[in-house]
Amino acid sequence: MPPATRPRDIERYFLSNEWFYERRKNYYRNQGRTAGRIVSIPYLAQAIMAIGLSEPSNSRARPSSLLKSESDYGRIFDPTLDFGIYLWAARTQRKVDDFLRSEQAGATASERTNLRFHVSMLTVAKAHGAKVYSPAQLEHIVDTEFGDDLIADAFAEIRKGVAARETATGAPLDKIAKSSALTEELLASAFPS
Fold it and tell me: Which of 37, 94, 119, 155 has its CA 20 to 30 A from that of 60?
């Protein structure tokens, strides 16, 4: 497991950029910090799993157990990973979440809950130009801020993918979002071999 100082180092890095990595529940919220800049441990883990490891179905299906496995913990909190990638992933996920709540998105509550990590994964993969296997691959795009149009394009593609899976399987949206099949189909469609 990474050294115990890693979470503290991430917290210090976030603080230096006026963001708040909340290692202790409600610590920054109780200080009156801006809620939109507070990032919990599970939120960051879900963002890294979706954006940096192309596993949005795991982010959706296993939010509370992502950090219980030593192997997943090591992939998410890799001690060699630049702190800037963590902050950028959190900011990107927050941007996607904000977009999905907007009138422009027109997302249902179920889509916001079930597809948010798929939207961030596909948006970032397209900016990267391929499926992302490791968060370290993202160093070249950590200064990228995504506009609503790019996020909207990814969301539209995901809606089409969901509709195709619903037709093929008859499964409800939450089951589709928790399965890796949707992710595989989205990436295969975005990056045909």
Answer: 37
The tokens describing 112, both together, are 């916001």
pTM above 0.85, yes or no: yes
Closest CA to 50 of 113, 141, 117: 117
3-state secondary structure 84-105: HHHHHHHHHHHHHHHHHHCCCC
The domain limits of the chain are 5-190
Write out the E strands in the chain.
20-22, 38-40
Nearest Cα residue to 96 out of 117, 76, 126, 79: 117
Distance CA 60, CA 97 (A): 13
User: Which token pair is 91?
Assistant: 């900011």
Question: What is the DSSP secondary-structure string of 132-164?
Answer: -SSGGGGGGGTT----HHHHHHHHHHHHHHHHH
Question: Which tens digit of pLDDT belongs to each residue from 64-97?
Answer: 677 788 888 889 989 899 999 999 999 999 999 9
Give the burial class of 149: count Cβ atoms within 10 A of its Cβ; 0-12 exposed, 13-18 middle, 19 or more buried.
Answer: exposed
